[in-house]
Amino acid sequence: AQLVESGGGLVQPGGSLRLSCTTSLTIFSICTMTWYRQGPGKERELVASVSPEGITDYTDSVKGRFTISRDNAKKTVALEMRNLKLDDTATYYCNARLPSADRETGFWGQGTQVSVSS
Hints:
This protein has no helices and 11 strands. By secondary structure, the protein is mostly beta strands. A hairpin with a 6-residue loop joins strand 4 and strand 5.
């Protein structure tokens, strides 16, 4: 299965970006979809996730600024990012896994780069 991220780019602090992840996974609707990121010199961290039932979860640093959403008909998960900060600079990865599977298992995309700089 293939996950393809898009929407990354260069943005100034305070700006916004919308990331998108599309897939051909036939089990998309029953997968937990998660956005991870890895910044320069940092470990990969979970940013936001959405369960098959639409329950969302966010890491504290993005709460109130990022919104994750899914469209099962289009097999797409999006990450709306507002008020971007320098620390949001990272490669963002999309992940799909069954809810019963361990985190960071399942299917991964190649990543999309987000750079926040003035």
